Amino acid sequence: MEIPTAALPFRDKPAQVGADGQLDVKADDQEIAQMARSGTDNNNDANMDKCVATKNDEQEPSTIEETAEAPDPKKSKKKKRTKKSRGKNKGSGFEEYAADGPITVAEYEENKNRYDRSLPAKQRLETAIQRFQAKRSMNIDRRNVFTKYMSYGGVDVGPKMFEGNDQLDLMDMDSEDILTAAAQASVPENRVGWDVNFEAVAKGFLSSVLPLHIGLETEALVDMATGTIRNFLNYILLHDVCPEYAENILAARAVCDVAKVELWKAQQANCWAPGNFNMACSTLFGGYFYGLYTGDQAWSKEAGAEGMADSAARKVVKFAIAGVGSYEQAVRFRSLANANELKATCVNETGFEVIAITPVNNDVRDFYKQYAQDLQPVGKLRAKPWRNPGLPAEDLPPNQNYGAYHSPPFSAIDEYEFFVEESMLKFCFAGMKVETSVWELNCGFQYFDNVMAVYCSFYTILLNENMIGWKEPRDLRSDVIVPHNSEAETQVGGGDEGQVRAEEDD
Fold first, then answer.
1. Best label site of 101, 120, 132, 268, fewest CB within 10 Å?
2. Where is composition skewed (Basic residues) in this entry (predicted)?
3. Do 258 and 127 belong to one domain?
């Protein structure tokens, strides 16, 4: 006898028997359905508890794929960049190895129209300057150098007067028009007739303006200043702005390379000048350092001594003459010193130009090492007379003596020979200009006094220097009518009203 599967009793529960002695199948079916529903509910509760436990306990995913796909809430948050921090990592265009990329065909065609040779050089340069400023990012120091260079070259820098830009007007312009309207560099119409000479401007600015108006205390500042001008010249060459001046621009770029070396050497030489030997001669025989020593004063112990003691000066002079002087100079110096007849005369009050350098040789170095280890070895410097072209011309009668020390004109002496320590000699170079006074001893050698300035070999003075900081004058007398002064009339009343008031005042 087969018993239906549905009629089988559940565990620990007896089967129900009806009144007729048969198994109650209907009751069992209802009970099975109820048990199934309760089992489903229990499974759902268990799954819900499992999800809650996983969320609360933050269990790690069980597979590598799940680990890779699961986002990290801490790393997924990105900080929003502020306007102030935008562009900080962007290149400025003045880096050591920065270079403009090759020009595309479209850019080449645009440059042909933009820098057409039929246009005047003034207009092409003005466009190139504006685009260069837009393409480069300059800090304060670099912009100061570039604006002074532009002003020295005859370019007006700064916002244009009475040409304010309305934002509504800028919305109707394209990028080229906006660049022109917002530009702060322009070449005035009254300077169109000026000669275009990139080399002369580079020489004048780097040699006379840059050391005077911009501090060059470190070598990095020298590299920054010369690199800024060189970068601009490269931009003009790359975009073929002025092909008719290509050779002149290349010469100006070569000046920048020379200035990068000579400017820093001139700064160092100016710091070490005039050297111990020349200071000693000035202390003993006459000059700026004569009687300047303050080491024997009681108050100098706190303030610090200046100058050189006479005993130290005599030692420096004797060893220099014995080491690098000629035999005739040494004999004559000893005889005049024993007779107390050594005298010095100022022979030049303007300066000299270096023409040759004789470095310290091994024999002189061994001589100092053996007999005077506390002194620096001395080399020779040959020079010729030089006068700063920026100084005013001397207006003296033909028979009047030159200078305060009754010295003859420096053309009487064609060449000088100075003794200079190795510490200063390594910074000297051929063509270096030194502004100082030159003295000559009656024993046959010269020395130079306190140095006022040291210049590069390409030192140039241009009238453009007068344009730095120049502003066009305007009439500030707004309450006074000046005859034939249209500007004053416009300021007071303008037009016919100003003319009427002028007639009433008359």
1. 101
2. 75-89
3. yes
